[in-house]
Each structure stands twice: as C-alpha cells, then as structure tokens.
C-alpha cells in the first residue's frame, strides 16, 4: 500500500481562485472589510486582556475609491502585520489568522467576535484586481511591511513606509472589473453586505445641514442652516438585534424595521426578539408584516448574518418554509457555511435552529393571545394566512397553534377550535351524532346561504384563504367525529341532516314531468337537477356545489389535491328544486309550454344570479325578460 501527500500546482491555483472561489465577484468587498473588522476586533480583544497598552483611538475602517488611478483601498486601524506575519498569514493560502487568534485566546470571551474562518477571504481580491498591494504596520510598532502580487505565485515583500498602526489593502482593478470603480456600485455593495458590520465604515463624505456657526437668523427668527461636509459612515455597528431586549421599546423595534426596509411604509404588526446562547448561538428579530389573503407576499425578506456580516437573504433550510413570509434578521455564528458563505452546508444543527425558531414564534403568538386577546383578534385577519400555512406545513406548529389559532364567524365572533366545538355542538350535531362545522369563503357572495343557516341558529365560520381546502382536511383529522362543509355545498336541511322529513307537494310522476323542462334551460354538462322537499319560504331553486368535488378542485388549484383532470378539473353543480315552493307549483300547472319554459328559465337564472354565475349575454337576456315580466 502506497502513501503520500497530494501536491497542489501553485501555477494553477490563482486562475482557480479568480474564477471559482466565490459565486459572485462582488463578494470581494465584503471579505476585505470582514478582514479589516477582524483586525480591529483583535486589537480591542488584546486591549481588554491587557496585551495592548496603547490608545485605540478612532478605529473607523475607510474605503477609498480612486477612479483615475483605478484603485480601491480598504484601510483599517487594527492589529496590523509585520513582515513575518505577512509571510505567515498572506503567503499561506487557507491559513486563517482569525482562526489561529481564536484558538490562542479561546478561553477569553473577547475572541468570540472574530469573523474569519477559512483563510481565503483576502484572495477574493484577485477576482477583480490585476495587482494587489498590502501596506501594514502592526500594533507592536515593528517595521512596516509592503507586500505586492500580480495574481501569479510570485510576490514581493519589503519594508514599508507606513507610520501608523493598521493595514491598507490596495486593489488595482482589472479591465474586466471596472464596474467596481463606480461610486454608486460601491455604495450598493456597502449597503448590501456591510450595513451592520460591528466597526464603523467610512466611504467618502456627505452633506449635512446644520445651524450656522455665527448664529445668524432669518426674518422669522430661526437660526439659518449651512451646508457642511461630514464623514459618510455607511453602517450601524450596533443594530437592534445585538442589544438586550430589555433595553428596547416598541419604537426602537419599529425604527429598526424601517432601517431594514426603508421602502416599506407599513409598520409590522408585532415582532419576536431571538436571543439564544444554548445549545447554539442565535440572535435576531423577526417581524410579522400584514399578509394579504391571496398570499401575494415577497419572500427572501429575512436576512441571514454571521457576526453581523451579511450572508444571504435566501434562508430556506434555516427557518421553516412558512416562516419565510416573515421579515427581519437572524444572526448565528453556528450556521455552517461553505467558503463563499453563499450556501448552507447540510448539518444537523441547522434543523435544530429551524425547530427552535418555529417554537419561539409559536410561543410568542401564544403569549400575545393570552396577554391581550382583543388586540390579537384585531390582527387576526392580517396574520391568519401565515398561521394556516404553518399549521399545514409543520406538525409541531399545528399542535402548538391549537392554543391561539382563531376561527371567526360571519357575525364577528372569534373562537379557538375547542371553543368552537363546544359552542356549536348542541345545534350542529347531525342524526349520526357527527359535528358539522359550516364555513363560508365569500361572505357577501354567499349571503343568502349564510342567512338560511343563521336563521336556524347555526354558526358559520369564515375560511377564505387559498389554503382553506387543505386546512379543513387537517382540522377534520384533529376534531374527532366531525366534518367541515361549505355553506353552499347543499341545501340548509341537508348540510346538517337532522332526519326531519318534510312532505313533498309533488309526486314522483310530477317531478319527472318537470325535470326535462328545467334541464332544458341550464347546461346539462354543468348542472345536475335534483328535487327536494324544503320549506315553502326557502328559495324555489338553489345552486350548490358538492363539498368533495369542490374541495378537490380547490386543493388542485394550490397544489396537493387529487388532480385527476390534469389541472383542468371541471366545475360541477347541483341545481336543487324546492318542490314545495309556489313558483314550482305554478310552473307545473302552466299549460303554455313557452310560458312554462320562461318561468323555469327565470327561476334558474335567479339561482345563478345569487351565486354571481349569470354573466354576459345570459345576464342581458335575464334583465330584458325581467322588465317584460314587470
């Protein structure tokens, strides 16, 4: 058996770095600023441990763009490097100075804030630069160093002329990357990747209007303003999620939300502040936005950070899918990332984090429900789609949601599932002792059906989200010996069958005589004509859509249903004829065939109109016919 060491061809390593190290070349700026941040945090750590006795002073990181010279400089006032340290940390690819520092001082809490891990971040500069210089002087005030490389394995290292502590990384931008010499491009990258880095970052200057120094006043007695130039600090080093929840109030959380989403002019409904240190480190703030019933919301609104360094806004895998409807920030150094930090590596810790976040969200919702139920009810319509989505996609969340998920009735009352069961049980239990939960998905369009139900003392709940068909199936599994039926699935007496027989005024022969007359005025392929004995006060004809077929169609529309028709499941309705209504008796008694047909057509059209199913030419003809009858 032969053993040996795999050799890396240094001649080929730089082309690989330039083309494949990171998925997006713009990452170079984030990586260089992350290194500068580490250098600064290391200095603070050494000072707190007593290993650095000097004055830290201004530790702002500065980004300098020189379009004429075609350079970008990242300058810090951190720990710096001697020539020996440059050899150690720069000339050895994938040797992480940050990781070495953390290991050296692993028992010191201050070392935990260091960002670097892989020792490759600096080399991202060669994705956009044809030549890179490092000019550095370390905190021990040793001789400065000046390193230079043109993207080949050859480099030069000599004494530098830098007088102050810190490091300057100078990128001589390549011809194929001149987009990064535009101020707007750099501004966008700083906003995207460095908005909350823990050390102040300066990029040029900006104008501000302040009171004039002489105190001059205008004609109204107000102090006149004058324009001054100030440093343009592009980041907030102490964002809200890094602070203790006890130190923040509601306005602080709203202000941070506006900082995250400056173009969103609606305040969130409420928030959750995550602050976990065991069994993993996790901080962050999640916001509940108003969610429209049609779920037209933009995902990718949760931003993932690692020690305040932006990683991605694609957080699938870190949070359960239904939580991606939320907005906010999650920050965890324990989330396993690949070298580019762009993708998650598969890891059991990620599942634990996702599970914990789901539990924290459900705990917060339960807390809000118990603390102020009236306020929670007032927000229900804005969050119910989110909660329904969670109940369907996460079994543990479904179990927890039983404590706070609400069901609103058409009369504006709110019940939990247990409360609803106890409320409707006396009136809405059928002849087989099964509990029947009636629901509507269009309160206005189904008004006549709802009125019939409420006249009998029934409660009708409102389930009007795209997820309703799936949700009722899940709820039926939870609520034993129960069924959910939409209010227009059948006539009111059949919805909750009490086995109460109403005598029919028509014989079977009379029904058979009328059936072809009625079938002739509706689409036979769409409507199935049925005769039922109902109260005289009920509608002469009613259109209902059987629960099973309609539910399958609804489920197919949002995925997961029995799509037996390849996505084109046809509509199927029953046209129920009330044999005890006077209009039906009149229709039967009419000897004039044309007039009989006219009565049938007018009555059927009224049923269609009540369901908003009469349109186009048919609606026009109905109006003309109604005027003639008047």
Tags for this entry?
630 residues; alpha+beta; Heat Shock Protein 90; Ribosomal Protein S5, domain 2; Rossmann fold; 4 domains; eight-stranded mixed sheet; five-stranded mixed sheet; 18 helices; 21 strands; 19% strand; elongated; ATP hydrolysis activity; Hsp90_N
Write structural notes for this entry.
About 3% of the residues have low confidence. A hairpin with a 7-residue loop joins strand 3 and strand 4. It is elongated, with a radius of gyration of 35 Å. The protein folds into 4 domains: 194 residues, Heat Shock Protein 90, CATH 3.30.565.10; 107 residues, Ribosomal Protein S5, domain 2, CATH 3.30.230.80; 90 residues, Rossmann fold (3-Layer(aba) Sandwich), CATH 3.40.50; 100 residues, Heat shock protein 90, C-terminal domain (Four Helix Bundle (Hemerythrin (Met), subunit A)), CATH 1.20.120. The strands form 5 sheets. The protein has an 8-stranded mixed β-sheet with strand order 5-4-3-6-2-1-7-8, with helices on one face. A 5-stranded mixed β-sheet has the order 9-10-13-11-12, with helices on both faces. By secondary structure, it is α+β, with helices and mostly antiparallel strands. Helix 7 runs parallel beside helix 9, helix 8 packs antiparallel against helix 9 and helix 16 runs antiparallel to helix 17. Helix content is 35%, strand content 19%. The chain is built from 18 helices and 21 strands. It starts with 9 loop residues before the first helix and ends with a helix.
